[in-house]
Amino acid sequence: MTKIASVSYESKCIAQLCAIAKNDRGEIVRKRWSSGFFWRRGDVPFLITNRHCVTGRDGSNEPLKDGFDPIALHVFFRVPHERVAHDAQTYSNRSIEFHLWRDDEPDWQEHPKGSCIDVVALRFSDFPDQIHCVNDKEQYDHWQPEAGTDCFIVGYPEALGGSEGTPIWKRGSIASEPELGLDGMPVFLCDSATRKGLSGAPVFAKMLGNFSSEGRPFSGTASPQFFAHWTKFLGVYAGREGDEKDGFQLGRVWKASILSDVLNNTNTPESPFIRK
Q: What range does the domain containing 129 cover?
């Protein structure tokens, strides 16, 4: 059990993921680390991450470099245990093994356009009332980011976390105009020296200013007002462009707007590979 106080709400919504492959004896023989986060649809929490994190395949279903075909996902996350003060909460670290296949079919949800959209949702029916979800907190929708806006990729680069398993907030900046998309896709680029393990991480912007209690910007008649940060969910990080170690230091972010399409699509996805 871990005592956590004064931790950002978004940090509580992040999960560390480890895709695994096993041999015929049930022993783990391959691992690949990534990140994810929880999002609620109705009363049900879903784990959101990249499609390539659960398939080991790219958008054309070709194997990733050094990739493999995972059968399960180890999910590491936190649930609240006991409140010890108004500003202090104890948390329990939890982990489960989420099987990626049910009756030899993929047990995740994809975008209606299929593998070309690198975002999936996994129904997370355990602990439904305890998991913190990003959209449980009101989102600030009265401001739109532009190229040059600072952003944060929140996850586990190279499987590294902060104290008590909390995620790392990796600073970047929006590098392409987010409203325009990229190559006809709902994607924008961010400029950040990221590393493996951040795939599937949420991307946030933080605004600092005067806000009313409803989260709206300050106006002369609004009451009460306070000066604070407000967080906006921007999308899902999906890895860097290029194969070089440093490359362009530009990463792809799938825009937040696609999440509703993924969550509303209950059709079973096409299998990315033939299971042995």
A: 2-264
Looking up residue 27, the CATH number of its domain turns out to be: 2.40.10.10
CA Rg, the chain, in Å?
Answer: 19
Omega before 224 cis (within 30°)? yes
Q: What is the pLDDT of residues 177-204, one digit of tens each?
A: 999 989 899 999 999 888 789 999 999 9
pLDDT over 70, % of the chain: 82
Provide the CB-side half-sphere exposure for 190 (13 A, CA). 29
Tell me which DSSP letter residue 200 carries: T
Regions of the chain where pLDDT drops below 50: 214-215
Exposed, middle or buried: residue 144 (CB in 10 Å: 0-12, 13-18, 19+)? exposed
Query: Under a CB-based contact definition with an 8 Å cutoff, are residues 10 and 232 in contact?
Result: no
CA dihedral 176, 117, 55, 17 (to 10 degrees): 50
In this structure, how many other beta carbons lie within 10 angstroms of the beta carbon of residue 214?
A: 8
The answer to whether the beta carbons of residues 172 and 191 sit under 8 Å apart is yes
With left for phi above 0 and alpha for psi between -120 and 50, is residue 158 left, alpha or beta? Answer: left
Share of the chain above pLDDT 90, in %: 53
In a domain, 23, yes or no: yes
pLDDT at residue 195 in the model: 78
Q: Which long-range contacts (CB under 8 A, 24 or more apart) does 66-71 make?
A: 67/32, 68/21, 68/30, 68/32, 69/21, 69/273, 69/275, 70/19, 70/20, 70/21, 70/30, 70/32, 70/100, 71/20, 71/21, 71/22, 71/99, 71/100, 71/101, 71/275
Look at residue 272 and tell me if it is in a domain. no
Predicted structure pTM score: 0.88
* Distant-in-sequence, close-in-space partners of 188: CB < 8 Å, separation ≥ 6: 174, 175, 176, 177, 178, 181, 182, 235, 252, 253, 255
